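INFO  loader      accepted 1 record
INFO  loader      residues=373
INFO  predictor   begin
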Amino acid sequence: METWIVNVCLTFLLCVLFAGIVIPQVLLVAFRRRLFDVPDERKIHKTVVPRLGGIAFKPVIFFSIFLLLGINMASGHLDMLTAITHNIRPLAFGFCAIMLLYLVGMADDLIGVRYRIKFVIQILCGVLLIAGGMCIDNLYGVLGLHELPTWVGQLLVLLLVVFIINAINLIDGVDGLASGLCGCAFLLYGLIFFFLEQYIYAMLSFATLGVLVPFFYYNVFGNAERGRKIFMGDTGSMTIGMMLCFLSIKLASCASAGAHTPNPMILAFSPLLIPCLDVMRVFLHRVRNKKDPFLPDKNHIHHKILSAGIRERPTMIILISLAIAFTAFDIQLSLYIDINYIVIADILIWTAANSWLSNKIKQKNVDLVPKST
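INFO  predictor   done
INFO  writer      dumping tokens
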């Protein structure tokens, strides 16, 4: 236990350190090569900002973990090697999926990739996770369902991979929002995996949290005029989204249900509630208005809060606080009431909040219209 506590803490600290070193170098290269995210009518920022911050994520995570693996082996501690060996199949295929999305994300940030191609790659990543043995074989009461046939569980993995990756990608519209939401999720996953004695997955969770800490600093507090601000880009959002898919599906399959334990589906997916509910609402809104559901617009929750007159940083704080509140209440409530009532309550609260925002925006627009004399 003590060895694993040290390993998990060192993984987090190494990722914070190495990401803090790499991100300024990425900024330097981006400015020298003029690789910027240029402002347009959809975007909130007013000046050019590099969008290659996500390039640092995957290399730093895996370098830190394998560095610690080597140090553990050199010092005669083989617990980490044993844990990786016991989980080598899902880890190997998960690494391939993350690597694939990392490369596609870089291509998208540098030259652009059509969304159809990205969907195909995301489906392929889902297939890789299935090949790694990952499967949602139990819904623990969602829609009244429990154990599922293998093929249904594998299909569900495919849907979740595409859904979660795009949800994280699309919520990345305000400084610190995507990294803050994902950071909270990785913190929770890391603690739960450690409690479940799934230590290698706890290391992955805290490693990813570690790379997000310095990124969050540069993204939120960096000065764009001085060249110290950076976005994660599709490289970052898709890599982080894939890591969330991998860890949430693993958690859903390894956690156990009991009379005095939270529902595993709540543990696995409640931290992702805000981006997932938002992408569902936006998708349905576009379909209802006969628009292409895959083309971007300014109807996401952060756009609505901004339109209601709230500034960018308070918007980020509100949504992260709301995500933490949803997660905490859902986990606690799952000890006492049926999961379906929790899901219905979450959807009703989310719908009511969006309706209130829409009315607030309409009222603000009415107040801005000059009154005739």
